[in-house]
Amino acid sequence: MNKKYLLDAHNLETVKKRIEAAENLLIFLDYDGTLAPFNPEQLSAYALPQIEKSLNIIKRKNKYYLNLVSGRKLSQLKNMLHLEDINYAGSHGLEIELSFEAEVVYPYQTKNIDILSQKNYDQVKRDYQKSDDVKVEDKGFGLALHFNSLEKQKEHEKKLDPLFAGSAYQLLSGREVIEIRPKGWDKGKAVDYMTQRIKENFELDSALRIYIGDDRTDEDAFEVLDDGITVYVKNDSNLNTKAEYYLENPEDTAKLLNNLAGEL
After folding, report:
1. Are residues 14 and 102 in the same domain?
2. Which domain of life is it from (predicted)?
3. Beta bridge partners of 231
4. Same domain, 220 and 92
């Protein structure tokens, strides 16, 4: 299917009309590669300044509910943006902080990790922690392995795939990163969970959902938004995505959000 460039005048007008007609709007945004240009040093991957300004305008509007959904740990994600009274999902939705909840929610916790899966996971963790050319991020329930090139990531992916095939863990590959985490939860499930909780808390009868993301892990979210607006930030020439619309890069995301902030 041909993908539509969202900033094309006709496509942008179509999306605006849907937004204006919606009773409520739930906006879900990935962070790295979507709001912030990709940076192998995660702590230096800051969102574009104009994006943060637009988000602060959008979140104050009555019918808009702003949500960040990222593979980053929740604590790290919250430190990257100065936004209050919004909803955060870290670690692909395994950690969720809702603005109207007193505590962090862990909607999915695997309790049935078999002995062999756990043994393989623990061994991989020990092996990579000894490696000098792979940065290991221990998330508690899983690992993120950061590589300095896409080629190296693919090389290690081939080694790890057979080890975890059919196990209680899954591999999630991003841009120069491989995550090893329990099976059974993804960004799509997290978005549905957050949608349900927001609707219940604010007694919303209906809401239009928008999801903007750039990574393979965002495809699960695109899939559950069959009646929403899905936007892929491509960052390169690849348009192999389930999303209906695309943007070229985070600079395009900034233009879109600025446009919406001015129209809201």
Report:
1. yes
2. Bacteria
3. 212, 245
4. yes
- Domain C-terminal end among 182, 214, 232: 182
At 177, the amino acid letter reads: V
- Provide the residue-wise pLDDT of the chain in tens; the chain has 264 residues: 578 999 999 999 999 999 999 999 999 999 999 999 988 787 788 999 999 999 999 999 889 999 999 988 899 999 998 898 999 999 989 999 999 999 999 887 666 788 899 999 999 999 999 988 899 988 877 898 999 888 999 999 999 999 999 899 989 888 788 999 888 889 999 999 999 999 999 999 999 999 999 988 899 999 999 899 999 999 776 778 999 999 999 999 999 999 888 854
Amino acid letter, residue 17:
K
Find where tokens 């978005």 sit: 191
Domain residue limits at 256 = 4-108+185-263
